[in-house]
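Exercise 7. Given the encoded structure of a 192-residue chain, write a plausible sequence.
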């Protein structure tokens, strides 16, 4: 509304509307006039490793959402195994009904999680068969911390949705997972 007013109001009134709009945006997470907003992103270098299409969307997400802390981007199979080895069952279920989920669940859960090598073996077996494991392996997903700053889940969901990002909430890792798959790429329900 203020943006429209400063464009339509003449002279000093327009300037006044501009000052209020700038202040309004600052109080609401943005940093100054539209177009020069800069949110601080912790671990921004992780974005250099993911695909450009999701990188751009995450930057725009942060611009609107405010400060974020990135906790994961593109992963190797070993990194994926390390994460899944520690995952609690409800979060493993976010991976859908792939046979590998059932096999990982069968592994003994120790104080430090499951055996990483065993998890990696399972993942490799299923990847060889052509199973889908995670958007992270393809550089199509980014996780941000839900414990950083004044994280608001409702806002995160609505901004992600607006930006065309699919999301999942990973409670045991305190992660808000966002992924983007460009048109034409196969995406089944339950994939993450
Ligand atoms: Zn994720």
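Solution.
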């Amino acid at each position: 509304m203020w943006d429209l007013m400063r464009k339509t109001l003449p002279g000093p009134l327009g300037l006044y509307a501009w000052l209020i709009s700038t202040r309004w945006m600052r109080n609401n997470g943005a940093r100054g006039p539209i177009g020069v907003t800069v949110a601080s992103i912790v671990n921004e270098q992780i974005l250099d490793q993911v695909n450009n299409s999701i990188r751009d969307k995450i930057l725009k997400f942060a611009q609107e959402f405010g400060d974020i802390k990135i906790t994961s981007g593109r992963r190797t199979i070993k990194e994926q195994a390390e994460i899944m080895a520690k995952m609690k069952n409800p979060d493993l279920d976010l991976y859908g009904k792939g046979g590998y989920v059932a096999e990982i669940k069968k592994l003994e859960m120790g104080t430090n999680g499951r055996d990483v090598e065993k998890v990696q073996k399972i993942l490799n077996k299923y990847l060889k068969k052509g199973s889908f494991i995670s958007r992270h392996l393809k550089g199509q997903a980014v996780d941000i911390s839900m414990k950083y700053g004044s994280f608001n889940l409702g806002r995160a969901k609505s901004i992600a949705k607006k930006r065309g990002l699919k999301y999942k909430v990973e409670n045991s890792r305190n992660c808000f997972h966002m992924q983007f798959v460009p048109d034409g790429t196969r995406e089944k329900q339950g994939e993450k």
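Remark. The longest strand covers residues 68-72. Students should compare their own answers with the one above.
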